[in-house]
Amino acid sequence: MTAPTELVKGNASALILSCLATEPMHGYRIVKELEQVSEGYFAMREGTLYPHLHHLENDGLIEGCWETVTGGRERKMYRITESGTAELARKKREWETFQANVDRVLHLQPEGSGA
Q1: Has residue 101 got a pLDDT over 90?
Q2: End-to-end alpha-carbon separation of the chain, Å?
Q3: Contact 50, 31 (CB under 8 A)
Q4: Does the model's pTM come out above 0.90?
Q5: What is the DSSP letter of 75?
Q6: Which sign, positive or negative, has the C-alpha torsion 29, 34, 37, 40?
């Protein structure tokens, strides 16, 4: 099973920042890291990833720099900034509050009541 597209889009920034909090990565590596850590639940497409990377970079939450790899090809590596680390902490708190409140609401009604 994979995550619903709208949930991924709505939380993509937090997911990307979380990956980059461990080490700098290029786009393809971010996609693979999300897939691996989530055991395939997060299957982010390039069409979702790169607009978010550009937005995060424009907001100063990540920095990108070009690196030359074998064969003379270049790829853009991204790293989280101090502002990005602070934003990730804020997003984690926001998610924990949201999750706790959704859990409260979902558990209001006893299972099997049919209503």
Answers
A1: yes
A2: 27
A3: no
A4: no
A5: E
A6: negative
Q: Are 64 and 24 in contact (CB under 8 A)?
A: no
The structural domains of the chain, with segments of one domain joined by +, span 5-105
AA letter at 98: F
Environment class of residue 85 by beta-carbon count within 10 Å: exposed (0-12), middle (13-18) or buried (19+)? Answer: middle
Determine contact, residues 27/49, Cβ cutoff 8 Å.
Answer: yes
- Domain at 5-105, CATH class: mainly alpha
User: Edge-to-edge strands of the sheet including 62-68?
Assistant: 25-26, 74-80, 62-68
Burial class of 106 by CB neighbour count within 10 A (0 to 12, 13 to 18, 19+): exposed
Residue showing tokens 């804020």 = 90
What pLDDT is recorded for position 22? 95
Concatenating the DSSP letter of every residue in 73-85 gives -EEEEEEE-HHHH
Contact 57, 83 (CB under 8 A): no
At residue 109, the 3 state secondary structure works out as coil
- H/E segment holding residue 91: helix 82-106
